[in-house]
Amino acid sequence: MKYSYVSHLECPKCYEVYPKGEVHHLCSCGSPLLVRYDLKALSEAMSPKDLMERELTLWRYHELLPVEDPGSVVSLGEGMTPLVPMTKLGKEMGLFHLYMKDEGMVPSGSFKARGAAVGVSKAKELGVKEIAMPTNGNAGAAWSLYAARAGIKATIVMPVDAPEITRKECIVAGADLHLIDGLISDAGQVVAKAVAEHGIYDASTLKEPYRIEGKKTMGLELVEQMNWSMPNVILYPTGGGVGLIGIYKALLELREMGWIEGNLPRLVAVQSTGCAPIVQAWQDKSRSSEFFENAYTQAFGINVPKAIGDFLVLDAIYETNGCAVAIDDATMLKELETIGRTEGAFVCPEGAAAFAAARELKQKGWIGEEETVVILNTGQGIKYPETVKVDVEVLRKGESLSRV
Amino acid sequence: MKYSYVSHLECPKCYEVYPKGEVHHLCSCGSPLLVRYDLKALSEAMSPKDLMERELTLWRYHELLPVEDPGSVVSLGEGMTPLVPMTKLGKEMGLFHLYMKDEGMVPSGSFKARGAAVGVSKAKELGVKEIAMPTNGNAGAAWSLYAARAGIKATIVMPVDAPEITRKECIVAGADLHLIDGLISDAGQVVAKAVAEHGIYDASTLKEPYRIEGKKTMGLELVEQMNWSMPNVILYPTGGGVGLIGIYKALLELREMGWIEGNLPRLVAVQSTGCAPIVQAWQDKSRSSEFFENAYTQAFGINVPKAIGDFLVLDAIYETNGCAVAIDDATMLKELETIGRTEGAFVCPEGAAAFAAARELKQKGWIGEEETVVILNTGQGIKYPETVKVDVEVLRKGESLSRV
C-alpha cells in the first residue's frame, strides 16, 4: 500500500492539471491549485478502522496527504487536538451540543502548525532549500519552526502590529525576520518581489498548494472524533480562509470515499467588523470579495483585507448553506472573558469571535438548540496577552489577604 | 469494573494510613500523603491492551487515578503529549536516542495542567467550593482555569517576578489573584495564613495529595508510548519536584502490576545554579534539602528554595541511581536557542536546562551514546518571551528585502 494516494494538482477555476512531484505555485490563470488524490483506489484499499492503531498526529491520515516518502515528514507531534465539550457555555447560549476543537494544543500554539508541518515536509520532499512568506504572525512562527527542523532557510515578513510573541518564535528558530509598517498585504508585496528576484520558494498562503492539505486534517480529525459523523454547524474564524477551505475539502474527500454520508455541516466564516471582506461578499451574494479598506481588529489573525482564496471560501459557504458573520472587537473580547470564566479555556480573540458568532446565530434562530455545533479555536490565548487586563494589588512579605 | 482502584492515602514517612473519600492534606507527622491503589486487583482485571481504544487524554488511565466518579472529571483534553525524536540535536550531543516529551502541548501550555486537572477533579468530588495556593505562575494559571471549569473559586498568590502571562490566565479564569514582592515561599506563608483563618481548601504543592497523581500520568504515557518499555535516563527540571516524584511513582506502580519489568530509568533532577537545593543535598548525600538562600533564576518554574517533597525527590534519585545537576542561566539560554535552531522546538527555559544537563552528563560519560534519553520539556517557550531578544529592521511599505 502506498504512503500517499496523491495523484496530481488541479486548478479549481480553469481545471488545468499539473503533475505531482514538481514545484508549482499558482495556476497560469492566477488561481490557487488544489491537490487531488486517487480516492477510488484509496477507498478500496482502506477503511476507517485501519486508523485505529496509528500515531496520534495528523500523519495518521498520510494516504490523504501529499507527502509521498515517509522520510520527508517533518513533525513535532502536531494534530489530534481535543474536541472539548462546552456544556456550561452552550447552556448559557441555548446550545445543548456545543464543542470546541482546541487548536491551541499544537506546536507553536496555533492551527498554523498543521499547514506548516505538511507544507514544509512537502517542500523538503521537493528539494526546496529556502522559503519566504508574508504572515500575520502565527503562520510565520510555525513555518519558521518547522523549516528549522527541516534544515530549510526561512524568510518571514510580518506587520509590526502582529502578535509580538510570534517574532520571538521566528527568531528562536533562526529565521530571517523582517517587520513591516503595514498590513499582511504590504508584506505580501515585499515577499513577491524577493521571490521574483531571488528565486526563493514562495510559501505564501495558497501560493503553495500544500498548506491547505495540512489544515484539511482538522476536518479529518473532527469526523473521526465524532465516530465518522458530522456536526450540523462548524464556525471558523476566517482571515486567509485556508482553514475553512481545508475542512470543506476534507469533508468532500471523505464523502467521495464513502467514509461519511449525508449533508455537510453548514460552514460559517467568522470575521471582524473591522475587516469583513468575506462577510460583505456573502451579503452581496458575490462569488469573490473586494479589498477591505482601513482594516483593523485586535483579532490579528483575521486581519486579511483580501484573501487570494476568497472564491473558495465563498463556494464552501454557498455549497453548504452556511453564512458569514462579522463580530466587533468589544463583543469578541467580552466573549473571550466569558469563555474563560465559564469553561476555563483561554482562547485566542479569533476563537472568541467564533463563539460570539455562534451566540448571535442562535439568537437569530439560524442555529437550533438541538444542533451539534463545533467551533474551531485557532490558537492559544496566551499568544495575545493584551486581550486581558490585570489590575491587582502587590502584597509585601508577611501581609495577609483581605477577604471580601 | 471500577472507574478507580484507589484504596487509601498513606504517609511515606511514618506509614500512617488515611481513608479515601475525605479531605486530607499533610500527615499528622508533617509529610505529604501519597495515594495508594489496589494494584493487585487492577492487574488481575486489566491489561495494557485495554487502553487501546480509550480517549486520548490522561483520563485513559482512570483506574490509576483517584477520581472515583467519572462525573467528577474536569477535563480540557489534557494529556497524551507527543514524544518527539530530537535526532539532529542528539547527534550533535553524541546521544543517538534522544527524545523530548513535550508538555507544552496541554491546556495552559505547561505540565501543570495535569496536576490541576486531577487535583481540581478530586476537589470537586470531595465537595470543595474554594481553593487557595501559592505558585510560581504556571500552576496557578492551570488551577485557575480548571477551577473555573469546575465552578470552584480560586485564590492565587504568586511572586511579582513570575511569568507575566500567567497572571492573565488567572484573571481570564476569574480567579482572585494576588502578587507578592517575594518568592514562592513567601506566597506560601500568605496562603497558609488564609487557609488557617478562612477554612479554604489548601491546594499548595503536595499539601493536597492528588496533584502528584495527575503528574504521574507523564510516566504512564511515556512507557505506553514506548510500548511498555522504559528509557535508560529521564531528565526533569525540578522545582517543587512533583513531576519527578510522579513519574517515579508511576513506574513503581506499573512494575508492581507487572506491566513493565526490569531496572527503572536513572532519574535526573535538573536545577539552576541560582536555586539548587536538591543538587546540594544530593552532593552531600543527604536525604533532605536546606533552604537555598537568595534564590534567582530566569527559569522561574524551578525557583523553589525549599520543596516540601524534597525527601521524595531525593529518594527517587537514590533508588534509581540517578543524579542531580545544576545549570547556569547563560548555558540554559544558549541551549534554548540551539534547540530552536536545530529542532524547531521553542522550549521553556526549564526544559532547556534539562537539555543542557543531558549534554553535560554525556560529556562527563554519565550517559552513554547508545542509551535512550527522555527529556521532559515542561512548558511552551511562548510563556517566557523575555528569553528571546528580537532586533530586526522595520521596512516601510514598498521597500525591498536586502539580501546578504
Can you describe what's shown?
Chains A, B: Pfam families: PALP. Chains A, B: This is Threonine synthase. Chain A has helices spanning 39-45, 87-93, 112-125, 138-150, 164-172, 184-198, 211-225, 242-256, 277-283, 310-319, 329-343, 349-363; strands at 6-10, 17-19, 34-37, 83-85, 97-102, 130-134, 153-159, 176-181, 201-202, 233-237, 266-272, 323-327, 372-377, 394-396. Chain A is an alpha/beta fold and 404 residues long. The first copy, chain A, has a domain at 83-109 and 210-387: Rossmann fold. The first copy, chain A, has a 6-stranded mixed beta sheet, with helices on both faces. A 4-stranded parallel beta sheet of chain A has the order 8-7-6-9, sandwiched between helices. In chain A, strands 2-1-3 form a 3-stranded antiparallel beta sheet, with no helix packed on it. In chain A, α3 (112-125) runs parallel beside α4 (138-150), α4 (138-150) runs parallel beside α5 (164-172) and α7 packs across α8 (242-256). Chain A is globular, with a radius of gyration of 21 Å. At the A-B interface, α4, α5, β8, α6 and α11 of A face α4, α5, β8, α6 and α11 of B.
| Largest sheet geometry of chain A | 6 strands, mixed
- What do we call the CATH topology of the domain at 83-109 and 210-387 in chain A? Rossmann fold
Report the C-alpha radius of gyration of chain A, rounded: 21 Å
List the strand order in the largest sheet of chain A. 4-5-13-10-11-12
Shape of chain A: globular
CATH architecture of the domain at 83-109 and 210-387 in chain A: 3-Layer(aba) Sandwich
The most extensive contact between chains is: A-B, 83 and 83 residues
Distance between the termini of chain A: 67 Å
Strand % of chain A is: 15-25%
* Poorly predicted residue ranges of chain A: none
Mean pLDDT, all residues of chain A: 96
Give the helix level of chain A as a range of percent. 25-40%
Helix/strand-derived category of chain A reads alpha/beta
Total helical elements of chain A: 12
Quickly name the level 1 CATH class of the domain at 83-109 and 210-387 in chain A: Alpha Beta
InterPro entries (chains A, B): Ser/Thr_Dehydratase, Ser/Thr_deHydtase_PyrdxlP-BS, TrpB-like_PALP, TrpB-like_PALP_sf
Pfam families (chains A, B): PALP (PF00291)
Protein name (chains A, B): Threonine synthase
Enzyme class (chains A, B): lyase
